[in-house]
Design a protein that fits this description.
23 strands; about 525 residues; 16 helices; Peptide/Ni-bd; D-Maltodextrin-Binding Protein, domain 2; single chain; alpha+beta; 7-stranded mixed sheet; SBP_5_dom; about 30% helix; Dipeptide-binding Protein, domain 3; 3 domains
Length: about 525
């Protein structure tokens, strides 16, 4: 127990003694929580940032229009009811009764309209504007917000559950200086950039999120986020009791797993996916059989259990588990199964032998866990007569480099790895529709299927997404590897109970209590 927590308990005991009562449960549960992070937010305005570190913070302050359960199903949020018109161009949201912003102002349909209007206003320069879809206008009819689109956009409902779609109260942007005012579980208190961010529990909070059990005010009174860039220093703060939760390194997480004094949390519902892709315009990777052989050589179990310390899972689909329509068993029937002998036979038939190996680049970015995964992958490829030279860059420069590389039609072929995350399979559109993410877009057939899935809903949309995944995998344009596969890990002392990581690595503190 830290001195800070000890003082709280002693104060509570003295107060109870003064009134001749025992220590009540409500007093014992009330507490402060300190979280150590490697990187600070760059903004608390969800319309001005797209970094996960920032959106993790805004998600604590701002609620979402809808929420999502662990099976991908939609549930109420600020909207108690929602519907889509038959032509898929009008979305209606009935805003719940009695919703209050942190400053006491009412959150109603007019407030929701103002928030959407700001998100799509070109003057806002919202980096996530495209994710809101082709919105042409908004209107209010009583308690109902109506959103009009130029064409059907089926990912819209899922998007409105995500951390990129926090609903800001209009008082936040009523003046030139943005103030983070929402309806969420925590209120903004103070922020010293690159040092400390403090939030306070919203006493009037009513929970909608199905991932949260607590129906009202968070048990934690105050949340303090401290920026400690060095991993060793963050771990020291956890072990000393200065911090209750920290972002550990992958290596430290492996050590903590077997220590009963700590708990480790992996982002099981992150919507994050690790994929391998190819220079499919460059010979011999213009041949789907050669690409398939590369996939058959990849020992995904080793990547999960050795490189990522068993904290992630292998994945079969181009879309992450737990999202709409994802069917891991079905995807397994389309993808390349681990078969190094079969892969070697394909390469030898194509003329690549131990004496005359296929020479390629294995292009990667520098992240813990990923580095060892690529080393194992290099060995996997060597076993099938593929000589892979690992070429690494920092994350930002990696994607800049791939933007150029993916235009090439000649030169040395390459395999490269990347990650993607979201709350809806529509990120397939972002990746594969021409020009595609870093110019990895494919062809007219894929473009058409990706457009079609946006115009469908329910089972029809799920079937179209499966068609897209089947095409990607049977033609071996991608090899799904792992999920989550990021180092979005958290560790806490064993006394922390109720902490969860939600979709897109949201931090859920509503249920958190501290055992004394």
């Amino acid at each position: 127990m830290t001195k800070h927590h000890l003082r709280k308990v002693v104060s509570a005991l003295l107060a109870a003694a003064a009134f001749g009562t025992g220590l009540s449960l409500s007093v014992a549960a009330a507490t402060d929580l300190t979280v150590a992070r490697a990187v600070d937010a760059d903004s608390l305005d969800p319309d001005k940032t797209s970094t996960t570190q920032s959106l993790q913070m805004t998600n604590l302050i701002f609620d979402t229009m809808l929420t999502m359960d662990k099976d991908g199903s939609l549930h109420p949020g600020l909207a108690s009811e929602w519907s889509m018109s038959e032509d898929g161009k009008t979305y209606s949201f009935t805003i719940g009764d009695g919703l209050k912003c942190h400053d006491g102002s009412t959150f109603d349909a007019a407030a929701a309209k103002a928030r959407v209007d700001r998100a799509i206003d070109p003057a806002t320069i919202n980096p996530d504007r495209s994710l809101w879809g082709p919105i042409t206008g908004t209107s209010v009819e009583g308690k109902v917000l109506k959103v009009s689109l130029s064409e059907p956009y089926s990912p819209f409902f899922s998007f409105l559950t995500g951390i990129q779609a926090g609903f800001i109260c209009p008082s936040s942007f009523a003046t030139a200086d943005f103030r983070p005012i929402g309806t969420g579980p925590f209120k903004f208190v103070s922020w010293t950039r690159n040092d400390t961010l403090q939030l306070q529990a919203n006493a009037d909070y009513k929970n909608f999120n199905p991932l949260v059990e607590n129906p009202g005010k968070p048990h934690v009174d105050k949340l303090t986020f401290k920026v400690i860039p060095e991993a060793v220093a963050r771990m020291a703060s956890l072990r000393s009791g200065e911090a209750d939760l920290v972002e550990p390194s992958l290596e430290e997480t492996a050590e903590l797993k077997s220590d009963g004094a700590f708990k480790v949390y992996a982002a099981e519902l992150s919507g994050q996916q690790v994929l391998a892709a190819f220079s499919w315009k460059v010979k011999p990777f213009d041949n789907p059989e050669i690409r398939k052989a590369i996939g058959m050589a990849m020992n995904r179990d080793a990547y999960a259990n050795i490189a990522f310390e068993g904290l992630v899972h292998t994945s079969n689909c181009p879309v992450a588990p737990n999202l709409f329509s994802t069917d891991e068993e079905l995807c397994a029937t389309w993808g390349a199964k681990y078969d190094p002998d079969g892969a070697k036979a394909i390469l030898e038939k194509a003329g690549y032998t131990a004496d005359e190996p296929l020479k390629i680049k294995l292009v990667a970015h520098k992240l813990s866990g990923w580095d060892q995964m690529h080393q194992i992958m290099q060995q996997d490829l060597a076993a099938i007569n593929v000589q892979a030279e690992i070429e690494t860059r920092e994350v930002a420069s990696h994607f800049d480099h791939m933007t150029s590389e993916n235009k090439r039609t000649d030169g040395m072929p390459y395999v490269w790895t990347m990650g993607m995350s979201g709350v809806d399979p529509d990120y397939l559109n972002f990746l594969w529709k021409r020009p595609g993410f870093v110019n990895m877009g494919l062809n007219e057939q894929v473009d058409t299927m990706l457009d079609e899935q946006r115009r469908l809903s329910g089972d029809a949309r799920a079937a179209k997404i499966h068609d897209i995944e089947k095409y990607l995998m049977e033609n071996a344009y991608t090899v799904p590897l792992l999920s989550p596969g990021w180092n979005w890990l958290m560790a806490s002392s064993a006394k922390v109970e109720g902490f969860k990581l939600g979709f897109m690595v949201s931090l859920l503190f509503n249920d958190v209590t501290l055992k004394q």
